[in-house]
Amino acid sequence: MFCFTIKTSVALLAGALCWACGPPPTVASKNAPQASVPGSQGELRLKAPDGWVSERPSSSMRVSQYQLPAAEGDTEAASLVVYYFGAGQGGSVDANLERWIGQMQTPDGKPSKDKAKTENTTVNGLKVTLLDVGGTYAGGDMGGGGAAQSKPNFRMRAGVIETPKGAYFIKLVGPEKTVSRWDQAFQEFVRSAEFKG
Predict the structure, then answer these.
(1) Which of 12, 36, 131, 149 allows an S-S link to 63, with CB 3.0 to 4.6 Å?
(2) Going from the N-terminus, what domains does the chain have, and what CATH number goes with each?
(3) How far is Cα 4 from Cα 6, in angstroms, rounded to an integer?
(4) How far apart are CA 70 and CA 79, in angstroms?
């Protein structure tokens, strides 16, 4: 029994080491062009600006994720995630905008929709819809995971990039000052979007 336990422990340890040393996430470098979903049907590439910290995606729905360091005076960093659910998955652009806006509450009780700003643009031939809304963040993860939160003085920058392979969803959330600090970088990130067929 003791020998079996040792062999089992060694096998589990070896498996864990193999997993930890396995291939890096799709997005490994903060400055390299970033392939979102490689495959024979093409992929969306995005280039992260300097200063963003690339993290290993915490779920298969997350193509890439980053931590954006806190601005001076803020105690929390912002988080940016790029999601891809598959062709025809993830819901319509309008449904996502409505859901994201619903995750922000205004201090005066007025609907967040009244203060939300949307923008439609084209980037390298791809249709892009962007959202900018502030308030108290009361949302969770896009895939339905994560507990609801209540974080005042937050800002969300989000967007949908429509590609021949389906929509990609970008969501940046964090303290208002920190998101404002990285707003130009966020826009550069979106403008770097390029679909390689």
Answers:
(1) 36
(2) 25-196 (3.40.1000.10)
(3) 5
(4) 10
Span 60-101, pLDDT tens digits: 999 999 999 999 999 999 999 999 999 999 999 999 999 999
Would you say how long the chain is, in residues? 197
Report the distance separating Cα 182 and Cα 68, nearest Å.
Answer: 7
Give the span between the Cα atoms of 193 and 25, in whole angstroms: 19
**What pLDDT shows up at residue 3?**
45
| Range with the largest mean pLDDT of 9-13, 25-29, 33-37, 80-84 | 80-84
The region, left, alpha or beta by phi > 0 then psi within -120 to 50, assigned to residue 124 is: left
Tokens read off for 190: 């979106």
Residue with tokens 């208002």: 176
Q: pTM for the complete prediction?
A: 0.77
- Residue labelled with tokens 């729905």: 61
In sequence order, the β-bridge partners of residue 66 are 54, 80
Give yes or no for residue 119 having a pLDDT over 50: yes
Q: CB neighbours (10 Å) of residue 40? A: 6
Q: Other CB atoms closer than 10 Å to residue 166's CB: what's the count?
A: 17
- What letter does residue 71 receive in the DSSP assignment? P
